[in-house]
Each structure stands twice: as structure tokens, then as C-alpha cells.
Write a structure and sequence with these properties.
mainly alpha; 72% helix
Length: 286
Amino acid sequence: MPAPLPPPASTVLDAAAIGELGRARALLENPGLAAQLANLVGAPLEYVMEKRLPAPATKLVNSLVRKALQQSLRAAVATLGKAASPAPRTRTHAVAVAASGAAGGAFGLPGLAVELPLTTTLILRSIAEIARAEGEPLDDPATTLACFEVLTMGGRARSDDGTESGYFAARAVLAQQVAAAAEYVAVHGLVGKGGPLIVQLLSAIASRFSVNVSQKLALQAVPVVGAATGAALNTLFMRHFQAMARGHFTVRRLERQHGVEAVRRAYEALGTADAAVQDRKGAGFG
């Protein structure tokens, strides 16, 4: 007699799952990284967003970010399946990036070339440990791609409106490239020779991650930063991406349990409910 098939994933989220999804949504949508940087240094958000590095410096940052991601990918391939601690070591990683930020911040743009690969690797290691805690298999190359995906998540910007402008929109931007890269990895391995689809995906991630790095570097270079050091900025970076990872991998776990569409509908419903509450408050009924 054949063994019975496993029960299909539930497509209805119960109260506990809705609660988890709500907490994940709170992490993923509020606030954006630029707003957090502005709060840290006591500068208006508009100042942070308008502050730009000189064009040559921006080009150098983009190049450094691409190289840092490539180096971090190699490090992830070597260690993702060998992590010793079953629980995410969020504080340990935060302390480590603070130290690297303090060292790199003392040397400005030249120091970034040394600090950025280390900081990026530490952030990705912390993201990977959070992924494992949510049931992701660290020996699966697809998990590595999902970890890199977190680097594109900045939270909701002040100008964003509607349920389509946050987390799922960020995932949609890379969805085709992530899927193509996953197919390539299944055949050739994560660091298969050439790896054009991996290179394309890392380039797309680098273009978004470099914006955050440029903002951090610009803030370090102006007097308004005051007491906010490279260590403080790096700590903020780490905590931000740890929060994004907790939200992202909670959503992915719920998707495995209940289906992608069911989770997305519930996520959007939470956004609609939050908007309705805000409208009531604005009208004086809250």
C-alpha cells in the first residue's frame, strides 16, 4: 500500500500566522534606511537625500560595492553550510561591524576599500544566520540568493503610498533575475565558471546597495554628523539589515506554509487595515 501523500500547505493564515506576518510587515515597511540615517545624525531627511558625493567618488563607491559583493559571495559559499551557532548572533555581528566602521571611518574614502568587503560579509553572515533560524537550508544556494536580496530592502520611504510600494515591490524588481540565477545555480553551482546570470544579479543588487553606502559615506564627510562615527553608522546598517532579514525570512517561511499568494493577500490586507486606521486618526476618530 503506497505511503500517504503529505498534507498540502494551508492556504488560510490563522491568527498566529497573521500575527507573525504583521510583525514582519512592521519591520519591512518602517522606516526607510535614509530616514534612520537622518535620525542618527540629527539632520532633516531631505538633507540626507540631497547630499551627493562628487561624481568620481560615486563611481568609485559603485565599483567598490560590486567587488565587495563578489568577495562576500565567495565567503558565503565557503561558510554558509558550516555555521556553528543555532541562534542568530545579532549582537556579535553588530559589534564586529562597529569595529570595522570605526577603523574605516578614520581613513575616509580610501578606508572604504578595506572596510566595505569586511562589513558586507559580516552583514551577509548575520542575514544568513537569521535565515537559518527561520528554517532556510544554508546549504541551498537559493538561500544565498535570498540573503543577497535583503541588501536591496530599504524599508518604506516617506514618499511611498499604497501596498505595492514597499517590500513586495522590492522583491518584484529582482524576481526575474533571482529566478534565472537560481536556474543557473541548479545546473552549474553557485560559483560556476563564468556565471553570467550571477554577475547580472549581483550588479542589480550592487546598484541599489551602493546608494545606501554612498549616503553613509556622504554623511561621514560632512560636519553635521558630529558625534555620529563610522562605528555608529555601521551599527545602524547592521541593525537595519538584520530587521529586513527577520521580516523577509519570516515572510518566506509563511509562504512555504501557506502559499505565496495567500501570504501576499494577507500582507496587503494588513496594509489596507493600517491605512484605514491612519485615515480615522487623521479625521479625528482615532
